Amino acid sequence: MYMSSALFTGRPSADLAEEHGQSSELQAQALSFQKEAVALRRSLHRHPEVGNDLPVTREQVLTALDGLPLDITLHQTTSGIAALLTGDKPGPTVLLRGDMDALPMPEDTGLDFSSVNKNIMHACGHDTHTAMLVQTAHMLSQRKSSISGRVLLMFQPGEEGHAGAQFMLDEGLLDVPKHQDGSDSPITGAFALHIGTDLPVGMVGIRGGSLMASSDKLTITITGAGGHASAPHRALDPVPVACEIVQALQTMVTRRINAFDPAIVTVTTIQAGTAYNVIPETASIQGTLRAVSAKTRSNVHSYINQVANGIASAHGLVAEVDIELGYPVTVNDRQFAGFASDVATAILGDQKVVQMPNPVMAAEDFSYVLERLPGAMMFIGGTSPDKNTATAAPNHSNHVVFDEDAMAVGASLYSAMALRHLGVRLT
Ligand SMILES: [Zn+2]
Predict the structure, then answer these.
(1) Does 368 qualify as catalytic in the annotation?
(2) pLDDT at 402 over 70
(3) In total, how many domains does the chain have?
(4) In the annotation, is 276 catalytic?
């Protein structure tokens, strides 16, 4: 993930400014669990798993949560874990999300806790997210008596393209039972953190509105008629038509999409033909579509159909457009983003909170949760102070190394957002 040109703003509200001194107690509490959190994170890093079936990861998380006053639901369709902490007094529920899956790629960090699973690596820092959410479970369990309401800890698999969050939602993640006194405990807010090497440890980045893009997969198949390369007039050649469509898609993006509500259409493969002297019958194009609003996303879908069908038919051929929907746009509720920003300011100081000018064009399946609940996702810095964020290996690199000090920061933020959302003062 990349965040460009940081703007330093973010004033604490008067209320939170008062609590600034007290928030250090929360950080001290996070640090008291840091040793165990680091050990868990390293063990997860050493034994990474991909997708929605993460048996070893799930077992490690359950062991680390053992003994805490949590109601644990083991999801059936995936390795998802929903852990519910009920405070001593009834009240609403706040959701905190941590993702647990790794990527199918080799690791070349040289860390002594490097992956022992060939071609699987925790290269997006989800091992740190899992460990910091466990750390948060310990912290909030100690504060159970001050909580009026509940905290739902969502340990999700399959963030990296497997829609693990959607599976958990479909399996009833948000069905929080009534309190013992019969009162409801609706989920009134949802928060997620994501570590990234484009910010130093101790800093966070956030924005209201669109935070991350939608991501859809495009396939266009152009069908004509094959023939002899020396007699194109007796065939219907799909190759020049495919080339024309690729060019026209770029023109479409610049001419029909509002520059202030952008889209990306990147064609990544073109396939046609088997021999230099044969006109093939078909050509196919694949690519990715990104947008940062639902409106532009759907416009791009219809414009692609127009462009592909129009060009193909102009030349007497047929185009078939297939758009496989990926994750939707991740949209932070503006009030919740402001709240998260204020909480981060109270915890970290007002120079440490970056108000991101632009969304990130990568995609994230916390978007499914934010379609159902108001909430916010925030990026937290993961680069060590002795390294340069501009040159540090980025997320998804086989060389990426995250600074584990970020975990105490993350656990403090998770805890503070949950406690503040439930009306608990930071003491
Ligand atoms: Zn990630």
Answers:
(1) no
(2) yes
(3) 2
(4) no
